[in-house]
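Workshop exercise sheet. Pairs work together: one partner reads the sequence aloud, the other fills in the structure field after running the prediction. Swap roles for the next sheet.
Pair: D.N. / O.F.
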Amino acid sequence: MRAISWIGYISAPLFIVFGVAALVIGGTAQGWPDIAAYAGASRTAAAWPLGVGVTVVIASLVDAGTMTADFTRFSRTGREAVAATLAAFPVGQFVSAFIGVLVVSAGLAVDPAVNGGMFIGVLLGSPVSQVVVAVFVVLNLAAVCAHCLYNGAMGWSHATGARFRTTTVVLGLIGLFAAGLGVWSLFSDWLTILGVIVPPIGVVIIVSVLVRGYEFLAADAARVRVGAFVAWAIGSAAALLTHLFAPALSDAVVGIVVAAVASLIAERLASPARSAVRTEA
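Structure field:
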């Protein structure tokens, strides 16, 4: 955790510095009025409907949202945990996304449909040393990948009973292999899958906490809550059907709404049985 923290201390400020540098270079070449007048991609077959865009934005955040508790549990107080979360999402996420928007609007991104607002090419064509840029890329990727690897290893080691370090090495090797195969080209498809699967998980957890309370769920953690899994499956199925037959809508939003309703029904159906168990106890 200390290593992940130190990588973040270095990579986050560097991202802002290099992002601003790329925008200054691009702004000088393109002209800020042209950037502000960017009208978006042309309406071709490759253009996304609004619903798809909403799903991708939610999917890019929801996976990190499910990981947040794995890191905020190291906070000294609840107030610090909330402050760190607010600094990460409304502030940090906005800064990085806004820089990407400006890079695309300036026409600096190479194939933005695949690479997004990546601005490394601008820096490589500038007086900035290629060695410095390479160090920045490694640190920036490490800051993201280390968090994901920690989260994945923690979850799988807990689910399988394997040692944390062993799971970390295995997942790291799998990730390297997948990267070598060019998995990056499937990133938008991966976000679509996340938009179908992950948002219903989050809303089922939220509904369960609101209806049952955290203390009850913590005491009931050993039980397999079938209703929660059913609600998640219903929400994911609705999101998948939306993706297949109503692409103009947002898979994630539909999945969230349907899963919330299904979770409420599941919790209500489970209430009599749980009340009986409490009475017998």
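Discussion prompt: The mean pLDDT is 81. What would you look at next?
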